[in-house]
Amino acid sequence: NWSQINEIYRGLKQHVDVSLFADRKFDSSQMRQIRLGLIRKLDVSQYLDENIASTETTEIRKRLEKEKKRK
């Protein structure tokens, strides 16, 4: 899927560990949230699961960002 390839490409350009999400089991939206979490140095293990819906991965990432800002 082109969207998945694009997320992997963007991750490579941004020097993040794409091996964490370069897998067909993740849809492109999940890949995006993982990539964004890696860029922001978040603990993506909390949503590194293909069974978590992309809308929920977005919510988890945003929550982690808020928690990080509070520290």
Describe this structure in words.
- This protein is an all-alpha fold and 71 residues long.
- It is 58% helix and 0% strand.
- The protein has 3 helices and no strands.
- The chain has helices at 2-13, 28-39, 54-70.
- α1 packs parallel to α2 (28-39).
- The mean pLDDT is 96.
Largest sheet: none
**Rg on CA atoms, Å:** 11 Å
Range of strand content? under 5%
DSSP helical segment count: 3
Task: Provide the low-confidence segments as ranges.
Answer: none
Briefly note the structural class of the backbone.
mainly alpha
Number of E-type strands? 0
Helix content: 55-70%
- Average pLDDT confidence is 96
Euclidean distance between termini CA atoms: 38 Å
Order of helices and strands: HHH
Q: Tell me the overall shape.
A: globular
